[in-house]
Write a structure and sequence with these properties.
Layout: E1 2-3, E2 9-15, E3 18-22, E4 31-36, E5 40-45, E6 57-63, E7 67-72, H1 75-99
Antiparallel strand pairs: 1-2, 2-3, 3-4, 5-6, 6-7
Length: 100
């Protein structure tokens, strides 16, 4: 899982061009919300706040409408999420240009 803003643990799944998040990792959990890939702008490594030990490996997902501050449980997991999301953004932007 990824820690979302305010320290609430959420589980994220990226598929079908959307980033969906859940309150638990149970198989039958209902999604809380999702973010369409078409709204993604950027993903970047965030700075760790000195007084917030729960955000040991933070990163930001910047969309057209807001910024999401997320934190992975390990450095490797953060790198993987950032890479996957940036590849998806790049491919999506490329496919839009191909359609023009």
């Amino acid at each position: 899982g990824i820690n979302a803003e305010y320290g609430k643990k959420r589980w994220f799944v990226f598929s079908d061009n959307k980033f969906t998040y859940y309150a638990s990792n149970k198989h039958n959990a209902e999604s809380l919300s999702s973010i369409a890939l078409s709204n993604f702008k950027e993903v970047k490594i965030a700075q760790v706040e000195k007084d917030n030990s729960r955000q040991r490996f933070p990163f930001e997902l910047i969309t057209k409408h807001r910024e999401y501050l997320l934190a992975a449980e390990t450095s490797e997991e953060r790198t993987l999420w950032c890479s996957i999301l940036m590849i998806a953004i790049t491919q999506y932007k490329g496919s839009i240009l191909d359609d023009l």
